[in-house]
């Protein structure tokens, strides 16, 4: 079992930055690929970014690459998402996810590849 708890969300103006954290518990954190998804108002949950357990490989949604950076600290069992130059359309609930063992990069975009989800943290960007 892996338990995930996100934090760091909030309300900010367009152009600002925010760093989300996801604290994980459970013995498998360091061996799972991890990811971030988001769900905006009236929208489906969509892929944001993923990172392999070594932290050496990262994968991003094409529309977000360059503004968002995913990282992890296995010693602290924590996943991060640094978000810069935020826009009103980034408003969403952001979820961290632990992927199923053996998930490859082809599966990172798929919600069905996640074995565990956090409860989500709200990010609201005003214009």
List keywords for this structure.
about 130 residues; mainly beta; seven-stranded mixed sheet; about 50% strand
Task: Give a structural overview.
The protein is mainly beta and 127 residues long. It is 0% helix and 49% strand. The strands form two sheets. Strands 2, 4, 5, 6, 9, 10 and 11 form a seven-stranded mixed β-sheet that branches. Strands 1-3-8-7 form a four-stranded antiparallel β-sheet, with no helix packed on it. A hairpin with a 4-residue loop joins strand 7 (68-73) and strand 8. The radius of gyration is 13 Å and the shape is globular.
Structure summary:
This protein is mainly β and 127 residues long. The chain contains no helices and 11 strands.
Radius of gyration: 13 Å
**How would you classify the helix and strand content by structural class?**
mainly beta
Q: Could you give the distance between the termini?
A: 40 Å
Strand content: over 45%
Helical coverage, percent range:
under 10%
Q: Identify the quaternary structure here.
A: single chain
The residue ranges in which pLDDT falls below 50 over 5 or more consecutive positions are: none
Q: Number of helical segments?
A: 0
**Would you tell me the overall average pLDDT?**
93
- Give the overall shape: globular
Question: Quick one: biggest sheet?
Answer: 7 strands, mixed
Order of helices and strands: EEEEEEEEEEE
Number-wise, the strands total: 11
């Amino acid at each position: 079992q892996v338990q995930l708890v996100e934090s760091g969300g909030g309300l900010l103006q367009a152009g600002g930055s925010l760093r989300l954290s996801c604290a994980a518990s459970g013995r498998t954190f360091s061996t799972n690929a991890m990811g971030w998804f988001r769900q905006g108002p009236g929208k489906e949950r969509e892929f944001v970014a993923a990172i392999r357990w070594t932290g050496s490989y990262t994968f991003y949604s094409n529309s977000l690459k360059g503004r968002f950076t995913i990282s992890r600290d296995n010693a602290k069992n924590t996943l991060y998402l640094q978000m810069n130059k935020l826009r009103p359309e980034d408003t969403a609930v952001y979820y961290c996810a632990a992927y199923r063992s053996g998930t490859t990069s082809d599966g990172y975009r798929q919600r069905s590849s996640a074995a565990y989800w956090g409860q989500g943290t709200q990010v609201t960007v005003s214009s």
